[in-house]
Design brief:
- The protein is an alpha/beta fold.
- Helices cover about 40% and strands about 20% of the residues.
- The chain has twelve helices and twelve strands.
- Helix 8 packs parallel to helix 9 and helix 10 runs antiparallel to helix 11.
- It is globular.
- Bound molecules: nicotinamide-adenine-dinucleotide (NAD), 3-isopropylmalic acid (IPM) and manganese (II) ion.
- The site of manganese (II) ion (MN) has 2 residues, from helix 9.
- The site of manganese (II) ion has 2 residues, from helix 9.
Length: about 350
């Protein structure tokens, strides 16, 4: 009951959406102890440190981590691109072995979507992307030589291990069992024959133990089409780190926007704390204006409640968010007003 939650509110809209999330968690599940870590852009600018070993050790002791967002504006030169993303966010995902990056998408009734009526009407659009979280092109296995010369060579090598692929694929099959029993592997094995071959083989092998699950396959390019033409045909999508990153922004865009997209970075063997964060970033374009939608962060908080074994409390949060969505269609509200409305729906 008295779990320790490490909070990294981060940059831009991160603190704004996290504030609403902890307000709601405090009501639905009093008793968490929050330990705030002032990491992110300002911390780096003030100290020259992104995440030191001592803080990493402290974070290890938490029962879960709640993260807002980190990162500077994409065009900014004040902070080197990738410094915070690689040095903080990815460092945590890798150090705490967040094998499964779970990203659900659901189109709630009435929510604005760029999808046409013919795609949406009468359809149940509700799927989950199970994104591998520790491997692929994200590993940092690359470098550049002859940098800044016309002969520059830059490499990023995608790492795919049988171990890493197996555990995320197994997780996806288990998840499909609790849902509509359909699993789609997304890759690009017609070009990435080595990595794609490994993923395909492992899905086929593990699939033999899941007779009740229908499996199919799409290349990533075709998957981006289907996500906007027949999104109701997806249930569980399993894919690698980069394809999953891209697909989940698209998934968010077609199911009500990035302001609703939640995620969990799960350590599947319980050796380190899992981390919960909205899919979106620090949104420097709207930061400090009270415009951020906190519901992605709040729904990530619900995923944290699920993970910690408080399913009924997680359901309460999701229900309050769903009711809020239904009752606020078309309204323009501030971050706090949205938080207030969801709080009101809880009590
Ligand atoms: P972004 O997700 O921050 O913003 C993309 C667009 O979505 C912007 O127009 C923004 O205003 C809007 N948006 C995002 N969240 C919103 C919300 N809750 N409510 C309303 N609108 C919202 O992506 P970006 O602009 O590519 O990246 C900005 C910074 O964030 C970069 O430094 C990037 O590396 C970082 N980033 C961090 C994370 C993370 O910490 N998990 C995730 C993605 C990007
Ligand atoms: C996300 C983000 C991160 C990712 C970046 C900021 C490292 O885009 O959580 O989707 O690519 O995983
Ligand atoms: Mn992303």
């Amino acid at each position: 009951m008295n779990e320790l939650i490490a909070v990294i509110a981060g940059d831009g809209i991160g603190p704004e959406v996290v504030e609403q999330t902890t307000r709601i968690l405090d009501v639905v599940h009093p008793g968490f102890t929050y330990e705030h870590h002032g990491l992110g852009a300002e911390h780096w600018l003030a100290t020259g440190e992104v995440l030191n070993d001592e803080t990493l050790e402290q974070l290890k002791l938490a029962d879960a981590i709640l993260l807002g967002a980190v990162g500077a504006a994409p065009g900014s030169t004040a902070i080197p691109s990738g410094l915070l993303e690689r040095g903080l966010l990815l460092k945590l995902r890798f150090a705490f072995d967040h094998a499964v990056n779970l990203r659900p998408s659901k189109l709630y009734p009435g929510i604005p979507t760029p999808l046409s009526d013919s795609v949406v009407a009468g359809k149940d659009i509700d799927f989950v992307v199970v994104r591998e979280g520790t491997e692929g092109l994200y590993c940092g296995n690359g470098g550049s030589v002859r940098t800044n010369t016309p002969q520059e060579i830059a490499t990023e090598v995608s790492i795919n291990t049988a171990h890493g692929v197996e555990r995320v694929v197994r997780y996806a099959f288990e998840l499909a069992r609790t849902r509509r029993k359909l699993l789609t592997l997304v890759h690009k094995h017609n070009v990435l024959v080595n990595a794609g071959g490994l993923w395909r083989r492992i899905v086929a092998e593990i699939g033999e133990q899941y007779d009740d699950i229908e499996t199919n396959y799409l290349h990533i390019d075709a998957a981006t089409i289907k996500l906007v033409t027949q999104p109701d045909q997806f249930d569980v999508i399993v894919t690698d780190n980069l394809f999953g990153d891209i697909l989940t922004d698209e998934a968010a865009a077609v199911t009500g926007g990035i302001g609703l997209a939640a995620s969990a970075n799960l350590n599947v063997d319980g050796t380190f704390p899992s981390m919960f964060e909205p899919v979106h970033g620090s949104a420097p374009d709207i930061a400090g204006q009270g415009k951020a939608d906190p519901r992605a962060a709040i729904l990530s908080g619900a995923m944290m409640l699920d993970h910690l074994g408080y399913g009924p409390d997680a359901d309460k949060v999701r229900k309050a968010v769903e009711e809020d969505i239904a009752s606020s269609l078309g309204a323009t509200r501030s971050t706090k007003e949205i938080g207030d409305a969801i709080l009101g729906g809880l009590v």
